[in-house]
Amino acid sequence: MRNEQQYVSRLYERLDGIRAQAEAGVERSFAAVGSGQQARVERDVIVAERSGLLAALNSVESGLCFGRIDLVGGIHHHIGRIGIRESDAERTPLVVDWRAPVARSFYLATGHAPMGLRRRRHITTSGRTVTALHDEILDLTDAERTGYEGADADAVLLAALDSARTGRMHDIVQTIQADQDRIIRAPHQGVLVVEGGPGTGKTVVALHRAAYLLYAQRELLARRAVLIVGPNPAFLGYIGDVLPSLGETGVLLATPGELFPGVVATGTDTLEAAEIKGRPEMADVLADFVRDQQRTPEPGAPIEIAHDDGALVLDWTIAYEARSKARDAKLPHNLARPHFAFRIIDLLTTQLGDRLGADPYGGPNFLGPDDLALLGKGIAASSEVHAAIEELWPHLTPEQLLEDYLADPVHLPETDIEAIRRKGGEWTVADIPLLDEAAELLGDDDSAARAAAEAARQEQIDFAQGVLDLSHGSESYEFEDEESELLAAHDIIDAERMAERHEEADHRSAAERAAADRSWAFGHIIVDEAQELSAMAWRLLMRRCPTRSMTLVGDPAQTAEPGGCGAWDTILAPYVEDRYEHVRLGVNYRTPVEIMDVAAAFLRSEDPSFEPPSSIRSTGVRPWARRTDDLPRAVAEAVAAAATESGHLVVIAPEELHGALLTGLPDAGHGRAPDLTRRVVLLTPRQAKGLEFDTVLVVEPARFAASDLYVALTRATQRLGVLHTGELPDGLGGFTQA
Ligand SMILES: Nc1ncnc2c1ncn2[C@@H]1O[C@H](COP(=O)(O)OP(=O)(O)OP(=O)(O)O)[C@@H](O)[C@H]1O
């Protein structure tokens, strides 16, 4: 133990050294004498880089080194969250990153396949102090013993699984199991589906896979960023510490309601409306609706446009021809609009030319090409003509289009139309993929943005010219000697190049830039609770990941959303056919066998073929149930009785009961963004998805949908209780009566 303590202390000393160096770098950059835009840009870049490094160094502080492998032949390596080298000339490795190939045997070696290992050691620390060592002898012919060999090889894993929860997910870097390691390091480049029952580590494995990919493909992923999609903000808060604790911060976490930049989904849909909006047919429905916006006047009811040289008649024939021409361009609506406008102007010019230049005696038209060009210019400048074009082929934003569509839906059966009809109101999660679809159909007409950028650039050139003129004026004063004069700014740089240099470089990280850019192509996307996403949501996600480098995590048995796609083939066939890898996790690390038995029996009563994951732990504590006439009081009493138990407690209850229950739970975290670090939390079944707590109280299970109840029953790491007023739902039983 003493030797390991000395080694670990030395590691922390080195970490402190690197940290001090990075801090000094930041300070030096701030104090840098260079002035002017260029120097500021360089300083900002250095500060951003060093600050990123500092954040990573600070976040790996806890449990920096957690293992050691001794190879046959005497070499050994310490394994840690990040790799650290000595400051000597050879840059000797002090601790090896857990993701490095050399560290792999730490996770995979067994007595049967020792992978060249003699011994594997787990080092447990508290702060910077080594508190325990656990050794496993892998080479049984080796007689040397350390005294730290435990009888139970899984002691470290079981201790981690048994520990009280904190409301935040922790990394599992010290105890990754072999089947999990294979998924984390899977070489598969395309879509990898990780399926497994509750508590099998799907989420935590996917997060470690993200960390692994960020290590193995650092170049690419630092540029393109990783996106992690999770079901709700509470879940993202719950998993938010895992990657930073592994030294990785360049990741964007988002809920499905946040995937259209500039819009936050705060509204709610009925289940029926969400299901309809998620159907794949909605892509065609919206495409048809966009075509509906490309109009023609009714035959016999033309648009008459006043013009100095006589009225112009924009009739069905002209509009129809211009529309066909514009549609032939096969461009999104807004980008095809100029084609429509040019054709209209062209046809109206011909109309006017025919009239003005007509020879009353039937000879050729009097007007030549120059006259026609002049007429065309006049028509193109006419605001009335533009108003008519806008009426027939309006420039649209995705928000406008969808708002108009939802106010008066079309191209659907009448009952569906009534289900989704909505005038104004807030955007919902199911609207987000529709907005994205609309954006695709409309196309980003960036001509206005480009014109603005050009104007800004011109302004900078003018500003730079001003600076140059000033420096020219002060030349004799500032540059006294010949050499300086030769290098005077105006001699070596023109205003345009100087303006470019002055342009503010984009210092945001790839993840920050990706968050603001709808057309961003991510290097890798991880989707948790993937079974919940609708076909339309998948269309959005696939657009964000043209390389299809994705890890999808889910459990079809936990599907709650009526629009959820469920089967992987249905989700993936349109994009990758059957070219995806499918792996399963079968061990439940969370729920003890006593609780899993109850949950599995309930689901089997719904689906007799259901195969639950097998629990790795048993607590000897049976779940309990109590019937009551006064739920708020019974819940408050049960929570008070659990106060002596360690860890966190969640009350999972239907939303409509929350108001009443809260009167007896004044300190509970609750609401839209509940604070999960509170000792007591009140959640709806949907909010509880993906989370875990030491103690779970399920309230009024008869009001839960079956899949929601299965999720609720499988959230506990230690204890489960059920409080109900009426009969328990069919199939739910096996409790002790409390
Ligand atoms: N190898 C491991 N070492 C330590 N803890 C582990 C290990 N694997 C899983 N766990 C723990 O098991 C619990 C369940 O993991 P996780 O939440 O990833 O499961 P899940 O499959 O996503 O569950 P659900 O589908 O119910 O959301 C977590 O606390 C996780 O840290």
Number of strands: 22
Cα radius of gyration in angstroms: 33 Å
Percent of residues in helices: 40-55%
Strand fraction: 5-15%
Low-confidence stretches: 467-505
Biggest sheet: strands, sense, closure? Answer: 6 strands, mixed
User: What hetero molecules are bound to the protein chains?
Assistant: adenosine-5'-triphosphate
Give the structural class.
Answer: alpha/beta
Question: What this model shows, in words?
Answer:
- Helix content is 44%, strand content 14%.
- The protein is built from 30 helices and 22 strands.
- A six-stranded mixed beta sheet has the order 3-4-2-1-5-6, with helices on one face. Strands 9-8-12-13-7-14 form a six-stranded parallel beta sheet, sandwiched between helices. Strands 19-18-20-21-17-22 form a six-stranded parallel beta sheet, with helices on one face.
- Mean pLDDT is 86; it is low at 467-505.
- The structure holds adenosine-5'-triphosphate (ATP).
- Adenosine-5'-triphosphate binds at residues 157, 160-161, 172, 175-177, 180, 196, 198-204, 555, 589-590, 690, 692, 714.
- Adenosine-5'-triphosphate (ATP) binds next to helix 4 and helix 6.
